[in-house]
Amino acid sequence: MMHARIARTGDAEAAVDVLKRSITELCVIDHRNDAATLQQWLSNKTVQNFRAWIGSLDHFCVVTEDDAGVNGVGMLNRRGEIQLCYVSPDAQRRGCGAAILAALEEQAGKWALPRVHLASTEAARVFYEKHGFRPGGESTCGFGVTRCYPYEKNLGL
Prior knowledge:
Layout: E1 4-6, H1 12-26, H2 28-31, H3 35-42, H4 47-55, E2 59-66, E3 69-77, E4 82-87, H5 96-110, E5 115-120, H6 125-130, E6 134-135, E7 140-141, E8 147-154
Antiparallel strand pairs: 1-2, 2-3, 3-4, 5-8, 6-8, 7-8
Helix pairs in contact: 1-4
């Protein structure tokens, strides 16, 4: 079973690579290979930003890894928003996403948050629904041609 651990500064380059590959390769249904959309979506996925996120008291960031290195990245903020939940294309369907969600939900519980919420891609909707998330309203505009689908999950607190 895959387990997530707290992200460290040294994970930054590998984590950013996971984010970029996941978005570029697994979210084609969302960005439709539109260059402007991809540029917008990827613009804040930098090593500097990742290090700032993991250094912030407002964020909780985790990674999953195997023998090849970091293969998943997740991030929760103190308002209960899951801001990142991405896996490397070669790690898809191996439990990385589930491990990330479990770690983020556990942290939400430690922060006494009654629920978590997120804006899903089209590509990830089935994944979130499988893990107990429910649609939270109408879709909104995302980056460029993308749509964001609001989801939420009550944590029973």
